[in-house]
Amino acid sequence: MKKLILIVFVSFFSTLANAQDKPEMADLMRKDGKIYDVVAVCLTILIGLFLYVFVLDRKISKIEKNK
User: Fold this and answer.
1) Which of 2, 7, 40, 42 has the fewest other C-beta atoms within 10 Å?
2) Structural domain contains residue 3
3) Residue 30 included in any domain
């Protein structure tokens, strides 16, 4: 059992060590200036989700108050 835990532990950290390489796609997008488009789209989606949750919370609070 100890050997199995050790193998899982070592393989997990070796995977994390390999994940530290720089992604080439991000460098290419940053060089072309497209990374700003990606960030803008992500921010727009997140702001839309937060606004939706805020409006939904207000509607639910209004319904709860009426009952």
Assistant:
1) 2
2) no
3) yes
Asked if the structure places residue 15 within a domain, the reply is: no
CA distances from 38 to 7, 64, 65 (A): 38, 39, 41
pTM above 0.90, yes or no: no
Nearest residue to 46 via CA among 25, 23, 54 = 54
Alpha-helix residue ranges (DSSP H) falling in the chain: 2-18, 24-32, 35-66
Other beta carbons within 10 angstroms of residue 22's beta carbon come to 7
Query: 25-46 pLDDT, tens per residue?
Result: 777 777 888 888 888 999 999 9
How far apart CA 36 and CA 7 sit, in angstroms, is 41
Tokens describing residue 51: 């606004």
